[in-house]
Structures are given as C-alpha cells and as structure tokens.
Amino acid sequence: xxxxxxxxxxxxxxxxxxxxxxxxxxxxxxxxxxxxxxxxxxxxxxxxxxxxxxxxxxxxxxxxxxxxxxxxxxxxxxxxxxxxxxxxxxxxxxxxxxxxxxxxxxxxxxxxxxxxxxxxxxxxxxxxxxxxxxxxxxxxxxxxxxxxxxxxxxxxxxxxxxxxxxxxxxxxxxxxxxxxxxxxxxxxxxxxxxxxxxxxxxxxxxxxxxxxxxxxxxxxxxxxxxxxxxxxxxxxxxxxxxxxxxxxxxxxxxxxxxxxxxxxxxxxxxxxxxxxxxxxxxxxxxxxxxxxxxxxxxxxxxxxxxxxxxxxxxxxxxxxxxxxxxxxxxxxxxxxxxxxxxxxxxxxxxxxxxxxxxxxxxxxxxxxxxxxxxxxxxxxxxxxxxxxxxxxxxxxxxxxxxxxxxxxxxxxxxxxxxxxxxxxxxxxxxxxxxxxxxxxxxxxxxxxxxxxxxxxxxxxxxxxxxxxxxxxxxxxxxxxxxxxxxxxxxxxxxxxxxxxxxxxxxxxxxxxxxxxxxxxxxxxxxxxxxxxxxxxxxxxxxxxxxxxxxxxxxxxxxx
Length: 559
Prior knowledge:
single chain; alpha/beta; Rossmann fold; 8-stranded mixed sheet; 5-stranded mixed sheet; 17 helices; globular
C-alpha cells in the first residue's frame, strides 16, 4: 500500500509533468514582468536547497523569510523544505523588535531578505552574525545574493523526501494581543488541509484552462500561505501572479484577471468605497435594480476592479458585514465568507452554493468537526490542526479540550443546517457599569456597513454605556475640514447611531460615536499586519479623553 502523498510529492509531479508551464509571474518595475515555469522555479529551488545543505545546519533547522510576496518566497520555501529544514516567515511590516523576537524565539539559522519597504528600520532586529541571503528584489545590502548562489551551485537531484511528522513551518501569529505565538505545522497536516482546499475549489469552479490568482495578502499569514501558495503547489494548474506595490495594485489585478480571489473585510470595504467615489451609492443601487441594465452595470464595475473574470471570491481573517457580501453579489461577484485560523491551517469553514447566508461563515469543510461549548465558545477539530505552540506547552494545555478540540476563543451559534455564525470573541466581551456583557463585533459590523465608515471599534469597559470610534472612509477624510462637509458627516453619523441602536438591546446601545483623528494602519500600530484592529492600543490612546466625551452633549464627537 502506497503512502499518502505529501506536498513535495505533488510539486515533483508538476515539475515532471509540465516543466515548461508558467507557474509564477513576478513584476520587476516599469510594467515589466518575469515569468518562471515549473521547471525554472524548481531548478532555482533545488540550487538553493543544495546551498542550504552545504551550510551544515542540523535537520529541521529553522530558516526565516522576511519579505513581501514574490516568486522567490515560493522558491525559497521549497528550497527550505527540500533541504530538510523548517520555514519561519515574518510579516514584512513588522518592527525591529518583533523581527528580533521571532528570529531569536525560533532560533533561526539563516534569514532570507526580500522585497521590503522599511528595511532600514528593521535592520536592528537582525541578530549580529546571523547569515542572510538577499532575494533579487531586496533592498541594497552586503549579503550574499540569490542570483550569485544560483550561478555557482549545482541543483539538488532526485526527490528529497520529508517525514509526515516533520515540521514544515512555524507560523507566528500577528500579535493582536501581546507577543506573537509560533504555531507548528507538520507536512502531513498542511498537505491534508491543502488537499481539502483544492477539492473544495474544484467542486465550485470548472475551468477549461488554468486558474489565475493574485498573491498580495501577506504570505506570512496563514490565509494566503494555505489558500494561495500551498493550494497552487498541490493543484498544479494555477498561474500565480504577484502584486508589485500598493500603488500598482489595480494594474497588477488587471494583469492577472484572477479566476478566484481572496481578500479581507477591510479591503473588500475599500474596494466598495473606491466604487462609490466614482458613482454615488444611491445611483448605483438604482441602476443595479433595472433588469438587463443592472447586469451590464455590475459587470462594468467588476471589470474596473479587475474582478470580472473571478468565478469565485472569498473573504476571511475577520468578520465581514452581511450587507457588504450582498452588495458584491448584486454586482455579480460570487463572494462567500469563510472562517478559520492559524491553528487549523485556515481549514475550517466555508460557505457553499447550498450552505451560505449573509452573516454566516458557512459549513464545516470535509473532515472538520465543530461544536459549541456550554460557555458559547466554538470548538474545532480539523485535519489541519497544529502540532502545538512552539516552546509553549503551557498554551497547548490551555487551548485543547481533553478530547482534542481546539478552543478558538470565538463565540458562535450553530444553525440546524450546520451554518455557523460568529457572535464575537470570548475575550473581547466587556461589561458596562450596568453589569451586562456587550459583544463588540456584531455592533461593529452594523456600523461598518455604512459607506461613510471604513473601520469601527466598540468599547466601554465599566462605562454607563458603550461607545464607538470610527475611521471615516478614505475619500471623506480630506474633506471634513470643510464646515459643510463636517456638518453633513455629523448628521449622517447621528442618524446611523439611532438606526443601529434600534437594533440593539438596551444594555448594548451606544452612547456616542467618536471620529478618529487619523486612519488606523499597520504603520502607526493600530492594525496588525493582517489588518485586525489592535483593541487595547486604540482603547489606551483614547482613554484620557473618555470622561470628557461622556460628559458632553450630543452623539457625535471629534477627537
């Protein structure tokens, strides 16, 4: 009886079956791109694997990658695996302190440095003496370069194997609450999870030719790593395009014309707001409601976004307002929400054509078991379940039930048909002075559905009632210096507050909306690298002003 295949076995099969098929397309500036076929990508990976082995690292040694998404990230990961080592990817926006923490905590033996925007600020985080290799698109350094290693090194031959229980990667969480944790994933588990993802995608989309995807969400995050990188390695018929920069994103998207596309709620919202800057929401809504014309208009909007060829789209990583899903579906985009996490290799729940509803995250993927604890917490058992937290057996003991279910930390409800609804985070619940617990996420989704709002945080620990801080939509922010615009915004936010409060229990109702003075970004520390809000940091920033806001009259305040 043959052993079940692992991810490298799939890669070797694709290398042999279609070596001349283009696999990766990398922008290199000036609207120029470089294509890498399966044969070329594997040749480079094999040469780098031979070089890594020549360094004499112990089996299973951790090798880190600090880079934005690029073709060489894929090649480096394959090289690390073929050489017998374990990958540690670091978010390319991390501070020097976090870079140092991950490198030291993982005991990394070597670091690949790739495309980066803030390398000068990150250099102090690289321990003195740590060997480094620079990708072709890396900032200027004195490190040994990828291309020079390619030129002087013969490729590793054969089909180097890994054991099912070998660690493939450590994925460090983005640290929305404290230090990042290293999640250990084995080859067996990432392969079984990825096979499930590929089968799920194939069951929904029938392609005559190759599939196309754009890789732009951080590859250090499990969502992109599993559903884009690993899925392309297992499936073998996907052409992966990379984004060059934020400024060229729409150009990159239009180059790829993806057949499937995944994103996070904040970006789905920004895409919508970009559409609204060109066409007012009421006008678009009216046009979409006209038979025949509505389909033409929807198609035109999607073409402007580069998504007119997308047969399937997904949202994950955080809750998305149900109204936003409905809006995209009216345009004709087959958008579904899913639910998973780093600890199950992003293999948990997904919406299906028959199992979906706005506000729900879908049904369990094949092989996934789910139940709700007596406390309302979602418990998951997945084929992609992590081996454990690196160097943290104390956390392993806390996060698993005696029968092996992972405690997700999310609160949820299960419908009779298996659909799962996320109702908030267990630890995000807060109690007002009335003694009642408030779950912020559902309220935030109600506010985020308004076109004037980009992001929201609901809080109010120990206060007489909850409050919301909102970041205005990008197109509005430069205009609020105009008194007329400011007045209109204030009136609409007051109306929004009243509408939202009508949908809430009395103990959940908001006292006020506060307008944030600046957008929340990864750079200013208010968002994690995966664009989740850092609640404690934002709450701490506004805490000195809370008493004054609660004492003021009115329902909308400006910082």
